[in-house]
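note to self: dont lose this again. the chain is below, predicted strucutre after it. 68 aa total, dont forget to put it in the shared folder this time
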Amino acid sequence: MLNQPMDPKQEQKLLSKLRQPVHISYIAKYLLKCKEFEAKEILAPYIEDGIIEESPLAKNYFGLKKQN
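---
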C-alpha cells in the first residue's frame, strides 16, 4: 500500500472519520488497513497540504485542520 494513491471513496471515508482527532493505530488498523508507519506515510501529504494536523493536545492523534 506504500506510495499508492487512495481512491476517492477511501479518501472521503478517511477524512470524514478525522473530524475528531483519531489515534494513528486506529487509522492504520481500521481505516487504512496497514501498518502504523505506512499510515503515517499516507497521511504525510495531507499534513503538508494543511488538510490534516496532529492534535496539539495528544501525540499521534490526527484530525482535520480547523478552517478559519
